[in-house]
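Data deposition worksheet. Section B asks for the primary sequence of the deposited chain exactly as it was used as input, without tags or linkers unless they were present during the calculation. Section C holds the resulting structure in token form. Section D is free text for depositor observations; keep each observation to a single sentence. Incomplete worksheets are returned to the depositor.
Section A, Depositor: J.P.
Section B:
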Amino acid sequence: MTKDVLITMKGVQRMDGQEDETEILTRGNYYWKNGKHYLLFESQMSESMAPVKMKVKIAPGCLDILMSGEVSTHLVFQENQPHRANYVTPMGTIVIDMEASKVLLEESEDRICLEFDYTLDLNGSRMFTSSNILEAKSVGVRNV
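Section C:
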């Protein structure tokens, strides 16, 4: 994989019988270190906020997302392992609990693709379930 990558994050959140789809498409940097994939990029959380710096660490069965900026957190997704995180926003800190039911990594020479599903709880109540795909591929590589 090249250092310059195209990153696509797609997600479907389900809450109270409703579905909300999100998609982020951006360029970023990729590197491999100590048996893990790393992605570095910026993401626009809302039009009124400055971009948030994202550091994504991917290993088989595990995904770590570190966000810094106006929104900051450290999210950890491991299959069937609950994790708690402080989600810091300009409006205050929210404590969230997450548990991934699937973290599936596919790797090839010019592409990595991670499928992960999780639930998110707030104050002990289920907020939503989410199904996601995170893909990074070398810039200039067509669909494989």
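Section D:
The chain has a mean pLDDT of 92.
Residues 4-138 form a domain with the Lipocalin fold (CATH 2.40.128.20).
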